[in-house]
């Protein structure tokens, strides 16, 4: 397979996963604001920090109001991580890589892109937002389902899996970083509502039901962190995502650089003392930064080993 095609499939998986996760995040953040008392003000700025769009938003020169942040995260082409931008990039990749992707996947993705293009601007308001975001989630999951069901498990599929899971690991750590540590420390008035926010962390990743099933305990910080970082069975946990990336390696040309990057990050997470991290003022934030660095190094190793001449 040409490195250009492999690169396209890798990023196709990342962009589709990014669109789905961003839609979930906006939906759950709106519900979190409804769950908290009226006198507790979280605002919409944390959403920009989680998605890494805060610098682009400041450059665009707007106030972090609900409408501005939601529009920037949903539809703004100046935001490379917006739902519309992510689907636009994925659609362009699918257009030039049709020979590698099932025709049905192209059709589902194109339907989703046209749905977002047609209804996105009208869905910024609260009245229409939830149905629109659910449509994005359903469309992204349908696209992934078609790929999983209809695509041969060849080299191209392995690169697609690699991109999808690296994007999921990245989003999980971003949500944990902002919601579980920096957001709490930024506003002391949120301390009495820690459990509500930990529940929001789980719901942002559609993990609440599985957490209650496997952990069998009330929602609390250490339990949520262990589940989303170290659980090896839940598909949105960081450990599961890294293990899935590792499982693609036997199907690809050997790369010790990629294997070492995977093992380093897995070991970092497996050896973490969650209780100790939470007891230190900046312990969790610094640890999440370490994981983010590890994921960035893994992305660089993949690019250098397979995509760059």
Q: State the share of residues found in helices, binned by percent.
A: over 70%
Number of strands: 0
Shape: globular
Mean pLDDT: 89
Low-confidence stretches: none
Structural class by helix and strand composition? mainly alpha
Question: Could you state the order of secondary-structure elements as H and E?
Answer: HHHHHHHHHHHHHHH
What is the terminal-to-terminal distance? 14 Å
* Radius of gyration computed on alpha carbons: 19 Å
Number of helices: 15
Biggest pleated sheet: none
Number of individual domains: 1
The percentage of residues in β strands lies in under 5%
Protein name: Alpha-E domain-containing protein
Pfam families: Alpha-E (PF04168)
